[in-house]
Amino acid sequence: MRLPRTDSPLKPERAGLNRRALTALLLGLPALAPGRASALDQAPALRRGMNIHNLLNWPEADRQGGQVTYLWPPFTAQRYQITDAALAELRLAGFDFIRLTVDPSILMASAADRQPELLAIIHRTIRQILGAGFQVVVDLHPVAVNPSYAPDRLIAAENPDLFTTYVDMVGRVAASLASLPPDRVAFELINEPRIVKAAELGRWQSMMERLHAAARTAAPQLPLVLTGAQWSSIDALLRLDPAPFKSSNVLYTFHFYDPHTFTHQGVPGEGAQYLRNMNWPPQPAQAEALLEGATARINADPKVAAADKDAVIARSRKLIRDYFGTPTGREVIDRRFDAVAAWAQRNGIPNGRVLLGEFGGVWRVSGSDGIAQDRVAWLAAVRSAAEARGFAWAYWAYELPLERDVLSGLGLPKS
Fold it and tell me: Among the CATH numbers 3.40.50.2000, 3.20.20.80, 1.10.10.10, 2.60.40.10, which is that of 19-28+38-258+328-409?
């Protein structure tokens, strides 16, 4: 969608311990017993997840003269920490895995002598989360902290060398994760690829194959999470040909924020930033009041020039008209998720290997009446649609306090 520490990295086998056993010792986990299923058949049994976006993302940096210099060591400020008590609260609520977002730009931009320290920071965070009883999806999640490695640039057709650098980084990270238990940790190779134009969608297949090959070569047994383009949309996942990954230990992910106007109402910089308290499913009688409220906010916003106000109001009017003119109820969610289930069945993919990696909405916005029950209803509809089809889900995103209404929409806490 659209808050480290240093220590030595995990080391390869020594003193008679194989890598898996050594990792188990370091993580405080039981070693895999002889006779267990092949790791190629193992992956985390994900069900109910929480995205955590503040631990290893948006690293602090100085920006002078067009250059970005990361503060070192990274991820040490208080805002990058989470307490064991906070993790225990999430576990008690019923979450069983964490989707841990990791900024790839710092890994791509940092010199070779800093790579071990960065990987050690990632491992330390993984250990903390595993120690709290969670499984972990390590998600490479590009953000705009460094314009040279911005999400759009990484996969742009005109930047093939930059994508090659990204692929190489994926291989390094996969190698560092290779010895972690495959039933506890999975590796998501890229978040929300921003290839959106119809004419360009065809090139994502080969790019996904390159990412997969780099990670799989470095980590033969590590579960990998693959996605389609178009911000990990359902339509893009349905375009993805899973045949090249048939014998690989993989999961597939998609994100769901539809209707976007509803889930992103009030978000600065979004088209719906002047909308508040929208009903879901849409109730046409509300349209006039929504436009009146949006118009008042636009007219009162000093950041909107007087000459631009009519155009901004017109955009809000169109968003409202489209919202009330497009079916968006539970039946639409069911139809969309059925399409994913059918795609998985056609391709021999168990539904348990499909992950709704992000869904959610903006809950508290200035001028909004708290957490509207309509938003809770939408959350419950999406979550239950995923569960009904056996898809795992991860809510976007963690923040304190854990809102009781949000937990209710997620069907939590679980006893």
Answer: 3.20.20.80
